[in-house]
User: Fold this.
Amino acid sequence: MALEKTIVLITGNAMNSTCILSLSSSMLTVTGANSGIGFETSRALINASPNYHVIMTARSLEKGKQALSELQSESPPPKGSLSLLQLDVTDEATISAAASEVEKSFGHLDVLINNAGIVSKSSTLKSQLEDTLNTNTIGPALVSEAFIPLLKKSTSPKGPRLIYVTSGLGSITMRSDPHDTYSMVDAMPYRISKSGLNMLAACHHALYGKGEQGIKIWTFCPGYVITNLTGAEEREKRKKAGALGADTSAKSLLAVVEGERDADVGAFIHGAGKYPW
Assistant:
């Protein structure tokens, strides 16, 4: 692997559903990269430049291999390169193993996109909170803890980048506004988990984002998104409600990776601007 490549890691799992809610060579790692936003972000990166190597991660290696094969076999062929690692953000052993493999293979990481997320369908509030906090908040914290030492070794001239994929539903300011577009969406466990993720990003910005050698950190909402995780009927409902395709969110993430949102480092951003915390 040429050292000049930007190494990007995208995290997640096979049931990634970040921001999916019903209204009723540079090195990059993308978690949750085998479906939806993670998959489309991987595609956007490798089609943007031969300088990107994207490390896709998935909880299920079988599903991850299917996604990897699909991207590698597209025509025209991608400009950048891809690899796959197994990583479950709720399993510390897989996080540690993935970090060790990245260090062994590349020696550093340039971009980490913490994309993993779920909406729990458990039957009790307790289990819903446990599910969403484990995947949406605790998991990203553990992933970042494992990979920040590698981000500090980044060789990218743009500097290391850490992006937390969150949701506007995690904004306390917007939740307190009765006129907010999504004020009627309850989703309490999901909202709580994403508020926690936002605080994690703010804390990491304070800890690691200072100085010229600091890590550039953002909290990014991809918007109300249509992905392959929903049935045909639900997809049609979302289209009518103005939902975006995952490829639109991927383009916005690509802009962050490429430095177009550097003026907003440390902020809670979306494709067209910024959200209040």
